[in-house]
Design goal:
Elements (H helix, E strand, L loop, with lengths): L5 E8 L19 E4 L4 H12 L11 E5 L14 E8 L8 H20 L10 E7 L1 H7 L56 H17 L4 E4 L5 E5 L1
Antiparallel strand pairs: 1-4, 1-5, 2-3, 3-4, 6-7
Length: 235
Amino acid sequence: MDWITISWYTFALHERPCYIAENFDPDVYKCCSIALGRKSWEDFMKDVRRRRMEMWPDPDNFHLFICDHSYLPEAGTAPPGKACVLARQWVLPAYAYSEQEWKELEKRHADELLNWWQKFAPNMTWDNVIGYLPVTPFYTSRHARNWGPAGNWAVIDMGPNQLGRWRPIPEWAGHRIRPIEKLYATGAGWHPGGVWPDRDPDCAPAASANAQDAREGPGAHRRVGSRGRSKDLAK
């Protein structure tokens, strides 16, 4: 419950980030998902170890994720000539700090993000920032109970035993909440989880399959796949 905890900072900018990588790849800024970090596997492991020891990520070893659609006029994320960009970084769970400590961290973390970002896009200074919205695990945990107490953006961690057909637990993976009849659930806690919280397209077939079983009687045997699609086994 405490591993998929991240900071989401949305920055309103006077101009889009101008990346050094544009010198050899002029269209790199058009990539909606950019990862800014070091190449070494050991740097990833250092980050993991720090978090396991409940230590704040090293600001000089961030693995920053950038999402920007501002270059698309039809996206409507920012006025012409401006930009609105999301920066995401793995951090500690909500309960690692008090509410007051998280408030103090919000500004410090914004400085950390910009300092790291500047290594790849030199124009990412405070002079380029119009404003920003800091969303921390603490904020997330208070936004809805199912994200608490850690502020886990995927509701539950996405470990091997909680992915795909096993999510959230094998008994409920087909959206049926056994042993309660005709009760179905869906959301980020179900497949595939994380940033795909709306799983109605998967949940609806599960309910439909159950209704068809009821009409066909005990002679029909049907199961629901990991994505909620019904599959005939025997009739």
